[in-house]
Design goal:
Cofactor: Mg(2+); Mn(2+)
Largest sheet: 4 strands, mixed
CATH class: Alpha Beta
Strand order of the largest sheet: 6-3-8-7
CATH topology: Nucleoside Triphosphate Pyrophosphohydrolase
Structural class: alpha+beta
Shape: globular
Function: Catalyzes the 1,3-allylic rearrangement of the homoallylic substrate isopentenyl (IPP) to its highly electrophilic allylic isomer, dimethylallyl diphosphate (DMAPP).
Radius of gyration: 17 Å
Helix content: 10-25%
Number of strands: 9
GO molecular function: isopentenyl-diphosphate delta-isomerase activity; metal ion binding
Strand content: 25-35%
Organism: Nocardia amikacinitolerans
Order of helices and strands: EEHEEEEHEEEHH
Number of domains: 1
Pathway: Isoprenoid biosynthesis; dimethylallyl diphosphate biosynthesis; dimethylallyl diphosphate from isopentenyl diphosphate: step 1/1
Number of helices: 4
Length: about 190
């Protein structure tokens, strides 16, 4: 008799997210699936954007099986901290899970957005913490269940692509880029 041991799959849609008020204060929790059901519930999220030594940013194309904005290009990785979980710690875990990468991460800003995915009917209503890092070693090893493809691109080239073809990118990417790039430039100027 042959036994097959399968890895238990985490139902990411059942995981809890932290609901927040208009000022970003925690006010409760609900499952991911409920937070993203129209009209959407405001909840804490994070968006990581990694830079390399040449100043390029690492983008991922979201996997086809994603429940929100599948196959669109996004920042390096995104996710939701569990209620009470430190945002940077949750971001480090997702970066390792999605792309097999580890680096020092720094929160550089926060913004709020609301976007409806017309393809899936789901909604993003997020208090989004922007996290940056420098990848000076290692190559992405994407999990195909999370990431369809990845690319490195200069921020100015990405701005032009976002303006030319916004439908190919997630609705939060432009805001993440602006906050992350400003912080990255400020950090580089401060280290000179």
């Amino acid at each position: 008799m042959t036994e097959t041991l399968a890895q238990p799959l985490t139902d990411r849609e059942a995981l809890p997210v932290e609901l927040v008020d208009e000022a970003g204060r925690a006010v409760g929790a609900c499952p991911v699936s409920e937070a993203h059901r129209a009209p959407g519930r405001l909840h804490r999220a994070f968006s990581v954007l990694l830079f390399d030594a040449a100043g390029r940013v690492l983008l991922q194309q979201r996997a086809a099986v994603k429940t929100r904005f599948p196959l669109l290009w996004a920042n390096t990785c995104c996710g939701h901290p569990a209620p009470g979980e430190p945002v940077a710690a949750a971001a480090a875990v997702r970066l390792a899970e999605e792309l097999g990468l580890a680096t020092t991460l720094t929160e550089v800003g926060v913004f709020r957005y609301h976007a409806r995915d017309t393809a899936t009917g789901r909604v993003e209503h997020e208090w989004d913490h922007v996290i940056i890092g420098l990848l000076d070693a290692g190559m992405p090893r994407p999990d195909p269940a999370e990431v369809a493809a990845y690319t490195w691109i200069q921020p100015e080239e990405l701005r032009a692509a976002l303006a030319e073809d916004p439908a190919s990118y997630t609705p939060w990417l432009a805001d993440v880029l602006e906050i992350a790039d400003a912080a990255h430039h400020a950090g580089r100027a401060g280290s000179l």
